[in-house]
Design brief:
Two copies of one chain form a homodimer. Chain A is about 50% helix and about 5% strand. By secondary structure, chain A is α+β, with helices and mostly antiparallel strands. At the A-B interface, strand 4, helix 3, helix 4 and helix 5 of A face strand 4, helix 3, helix 4 and helix 5 of B.
């Protein structure tokens, strides 16, 4: 049976980290909230689960994955579940905890990227918190982004199995998430990326090799890949971008 | 061999969620950074791992756990690893993903609690970002805290195995983390808690039963339990607290 992925339509957001793994593996999945309501899909089908008055296991927020009766919430949790099934997890059990730890660090960075444009309230518009956003984005570009990026660069170059993947000896979902992270940051902060990203040659090389993997290249060229836009996590607001 | 827990000394912080599980289970562990440097412990021992120039698997930040050669970072990852070993995870595999999803929601809330006093920069003092903190804390108290708390209350009361634990039919690390969350919020925001927490009777009852569990009660009365203070995640700044 196909996996059912539930995430807001119209933006890549956190759902994209899951989509990239499903696409790389060629897995059969339904992107439920992007489907037609007439076919029992759409946002209504997602809200039905989130607002259920009887279900015991309901997620706090999208994305979540349904595999049969099992409902799994949070990107890192979904990827830890899917990784071995999709051939995108390290083979060794101990390395799976390393992969999950790395994915959680990526998700922490994603939260900081989100908060760079929404430092006060997710519920309100960016325009309502623009001054705080400028301060937080400056902090992010100058301090946090280099801290995270140099960490990932360090781990990638130190992988005893080679720097074509960050953990173990084969591609994992963590590499796909790093690809998305670099693409997203380059979209959101082009000036900062231009100034700073040459410090991370191994990460850039990883990004380049993933971009041309056949399944990923097909996906990126398809209508299934939503373009980056100012509804997602990675938003390009020129007022927030500057030379690092 | 004893587990080695690595976390900043002098504050409960995120490390406390791991400590509570180790204490409830009566596990043998060393709280490394709180030990004496003369014995090869202390912050120096923690920094040695974080700043290693050769290790391939280094954590981004504390807390992390060392079990033999395995180094595991991030609270939810550590608890997912320890849970089954300590008898604090659901027995069913599928429920372990539910537990991990709940723990990740708790950790997301913890980040929001941290950011209520540090909305712009973790690196700087609260006093340097007080105006933004007031705005973010007001948002947290009015919108985010009720959203998270009513979610946990809903799941707790809907657990088909009874509302004395949030997942499955026995106590798990998630229950211990909920205890810590409620204790911490009550410390940080006493006015908001007084006004609002009676809306969550099942959570309060869970908190009360965990507080008197023998191993937890002994721990809370011991010097191993660091008191809440204004270095941790849960900080009591009267300027940020108000009636919900």
């Amino acid at each position: 049976m196909a996996y059912a992925l539930f995430y807001w339509p119209g933006l890549q957001g956190r759902g994209e980290f899951v989509r990239l793994a499903l696409e790389e593996a060629g897995a059969s999945y339904i992107d439920v909230a992007r489907g037609a309501e007439g076919h029992g899909l759409g946002v209504a089908a997602m809200m039905k689960i989130l607002k259920s008055k009887t279900e015991s296991n309901i997620p706090f927020a999208p994305p979540f994955l349904k595999d049969g009766d099992l409902v799994i919430a949070h990107v890192a949790n979904i990827l830890m579940y899917l990784g071995p099934k999709l051939g995108l997890a390290p083979k060794e059990d101990s390395l799976r905890y390393v992969a999950n730890g790395l994915q959680l660090t990526i998700m922490d960075m994603v939260t900081e990227i989100h908060d760079s444009h929404h430092p006060i309230a997710s519920r309100l518009y960016y325009e309502d918190q623009k001054d705080a956003a400028k301060a937080r984005a400056a902090e992010f570009i100058q301090h946090r982004m280099p801290k995270f990026m140099s960490y990932f660069e360090r781990l990638l170059t130190r992988n005893p199995s080679g720097n074509t993947q960050i953990v173990g000896d084969s591609l994992t979902y963590v590499d796909l998430s790093l690809f998305q992270l670099i693409e997203g940051l380059t979209y959101a902060f082009p000036r900062a990326a231009k100034k700073k990203f040459s410090d991370y040659p191994a990460l850039l090389a990883l990004r380049d090799t993933i971009r041309v993997r056949p399944a990923i290249a097909r996906y990126l060229a398809s209508a299934r890949r939503i373009p980056f836009n100012e509804s997602g996590v990675f938003r390009h607001y020129p007022a927030l971008d500057h030379d690092a």
